[in-house]
Design brief:
Strand content: 35-45%
Bound molecules: zinc ion
Structural class: alpha+beta
Helix content: 10-25%
Largest sheet: 8 strands, mixed
Strand order of the largest sheet: 2-3-4-1-5-8-7-6
Shape: globular
Order of helices and strands: EHEEEHEHEEE
Amino acid sequence: MLKIEHIGIAVKNLSESNNLFSKLLGKKHYKTEAVVSEGVNTSFFQVGENKIELLEATKENSPIAKFINKKGEGVHHIAYDVEDILTEMKRLKEEGFTLLNETPKKGADNKLVCFLHPKSTNGVLIELCQEIKS
Ligand code: ZN
């Protein structure tokens, strides 16, 4: 793993939280993006070499809606930047971690992503992400 790429935070209302985080961080988010397949709207803030990703559910049964219903707003996942997602997925699977998707999927912010089940990672949902180079 190269570095922590971003920290994902589940929020109830993205525009309210964009205001809150812009006050907190002293800067505005640099983009918003809907990931229709995941049922989320996202926004990103750059903080040094890392990012904060805010996630708002767009439908009742999306993973973010379920998370907020169960635990409330808060830290949802930690994302690690990887050089080669397929190699990391294979390595982590062999180490006994549970992958939530067996093939990388397209995430927000031009990334290929894979999630690790929090049951296999001390309760923290882990996202691997590899930048899609065009
Ligand atoms: Zn993320």
